Amino acid sequence: MTDQSAAIAQFDAAISQAKGAEQAFAALQALTEATVGAKLFTYMTVDMEEEVSRRAYTSDAKNYPTSGTKPIRYDSWFDIVHKDRQYFIANTIADIAKVFPDYELIDSLGCQSVVNLPVIIEGELVGTVNMLHVDGYYTPERVAQIRELIAVPAKLAALVAARG
């Protein structure tokens, strides 16, 4: 069994027992860390009717707590992730700074690259998986791993989380 097979088997076992967002996204975080890697991992839900997003899960509750909502910002990131339903990828803090106002905090945590994976269920964007790591980390090869190993499990985690 390869390392990825073991990680997928561990995710399968964890998600099959998960109840609620915390357990579902903890299973997804473990899979992500074991296969692709992430220094900071969060999941944001999206409510387009209310035009807000909410952090439903975080690997760093001190700096990125799960409380509260924030308004949807209509910018280039929104166009890529919400309208085009594509991954947002930035591999330098300068590129992150163009779209995330909290880029200084992100940088202070040792994260200078990001991938935001849109989670689409029943044709609707329901959230984003947000993976951050060191400068230049999310190479085309790692993004391909995310597409292959994380995208479908992210949908499953979102469905389990929604069940409460």
Automatic annotation (TrEMBL):
Protein source organism: Devosia epidermidihirudinis
Extent of the signal sequence: none
Pfam families: GAF_2
Superkingdom field: Bacteria
Matches recorded under InterPro entries: GAF, GAF-like_dom_sf
The protein, known as: GAF domain-containing protein
TM region(s), chain numbering: none
Gene3D superfamilies named in the record: 3.30.450.40
GAF domain: residues covered: 27-149
